[in-house]
Structure formats: C-alpha cells, structure tokens
Amino acid sequence: QVQLVQSGAEVKKPGASVKVSCKASGYIFSSFPINWVRQAPGQGLEWMGWIGVYNGNTQYAEKFQGRVTMTIDTSTDTAYMELRSLRSDDTAVYYCAREVVVPALWFDPWGQGTLVTVSS
Amino acid sequence: DIQMTQSPSPLSASVGDRVTITCQASQDIKNYLNWYQHKPGRAPKLLIYDASNLQPGVPSRFSGSGSGTDFTFTISSLRPEDVATYYCQQYDNLPSRTFGPGTKVEIK
C-alpha cells in the first residue's frame, strides 16, 4: 500500500540542525510532490514547504526561507527536510505528506510524524 | 497571503448531535478547500476535498459545503470516534497550502 515512513525522534540543542527523512513505498515516487508540515505542542498544523520530486523544485513558506532545505533521493525513494539554526520553538512533530494533484490537490498519505525536541 | 480562520474552538457536543464547523478565508479561494481529521498521535486524514467531495472510504456522516470565502464542515451525528481536531486547508493561493487553526471536537 502507499506509505510514507519517517525517521525517528531527535533531540537537538539550540543552534543545531536536524534532518528528517521520509521514505516512500507503494507508488511511483517521482510522480507526486512531497510536502512538509509541522505541529508544535498545543498548536495547529503549519505548512512548511513543497518539493517536486520529478525535478527537485522547491517552494518554502516565507517563515522558513533561509533556514529549511528540502531534498530528494530518487535512488532510495526518500525525501529529506533539513532545518537549521534550531530554536526552542522549533520543537514540534514534523510530518511529510504526499501531494495528490488530480482531480484536486490534497495531502495523502502522511508519514507517521517525527518528534524533534530542541532543548539545551 | 491568505489567512484562514475557523470557529468554534473548541466545540463540545453530545453523541448523536449535529456538529458544524465554519472556515473562513481572507479572500476568495473558489472551492479550493480541504478538510482533515487529526487525532492525537496519528497522522492527519483527508475527509473532504474541493470543499464538498467526500474522500472514498470516509463515512457519509461527514460533509462539506461552501465556496468563495465561507465554508462549512458538518458531522450529521457525532460519534465517540469523531473526537479529533479538524482543519481546513486552502490551496488556491499556491505555493502556500495554508491550514486553518483547527477546531477541537470533544464529547460533552
């Protein structure tokens, strides 16, 4: 079945970087973009950005411009999201989600989420 | 950027009640709106796409309507397993795929 499996929880110090992976299976990886969404404790879902798996094009939410990099490895059907200069308010569960564009645009499925804790 | 608002939050209702959540966009987004259900510790799940289309496999007690700036999500008869936070998401203003702030639905 179509599935996205993310890497495990991370604990980082302020100022460090984190790289979360998202391995796809059950579909043609290059046919669907991947989005990254996060949820901080007690907060809602926040869209971070998008990567076109076919060509590697990226679009980031303005809030994360300059601090986030999304990449893909088509040899392993894996997407990555790296966030740099971590702060305590980056503590959140990070999700990857496949973007379906026909007949409409939606996210499905989602990965199981990766908890990133930023603490000194 | 398009801003999304939702109301009410939280929402407390009894089993069997009809529950309605509203989502408002700061500008016309046509019908480019999705609804997701998010339970704690689980991945979000798509329920409705294009404002009113039920995703296959989703129970028919869930429905959506609206266009332009005002949208409604309804659970016709609330069940205990519907306890979750519900989010609207716009995709008219690409590349942004903004979510609303969410509505937490609880059982009274």
Would you give an account of this structure?
In chain A, 0% of the residues lie in helices and 52% in strands. Chain A has no helices and eleven strands. In chain A, strands 2, 4, 5, 6, 9, 10 and 11 form a seven-stranded mixed sheet that branches. In chain A, strands 1-3-8-7 form a four-stranded antiparallel sheet, with no helix packed on it. The model of chain A has no long low-confidence stretch (mean pLDDT 96). Chain B is mainly β. Chain B is built from no helices and ten strands. Chain B has strands at 4-7, 11-13, 19-25, 33-38, 45-49, 53-54, 62-67, 70-75, 84-90, 103-107. The radius of gyration of chain B is 13 Å and the shape is globular. At the A-B interface, strand 5 and strand 10 of A face strand 4, strand 5 and strand 9 of B.
Features:
heterodimer, A: about 120 residues, mainly beta, seven-stranded mixed sheet, B: about 110 residues, six-stranded mixed sheet, four-stranded antiparallel sheet, about 0% helix
Radius of gyration of chain B: 13 Å
**Termini Cα gap of chain B:** 36 Å
Helix content of chain B: under 10%
Count the helices of chain B. How many? 0
Strand content of chain B: over 45%
Strand percentage of chain A: over 45%
Placed side by side, the strands forming the largest sheet of chain B appear as: 2-10-9-4-5-6
- Got a strand count of chain A? 11
Principal-axes geometry of chain B comes out as globular
How confident overall, as mean pLDDT of chain B? 96
Give me the strand/helix succession of chain B. Answer: EEEEEEEEEE
Element-level helix/strand string of chain A = EEEEEEEEEEE
Helix content bin of chain A: under 10%
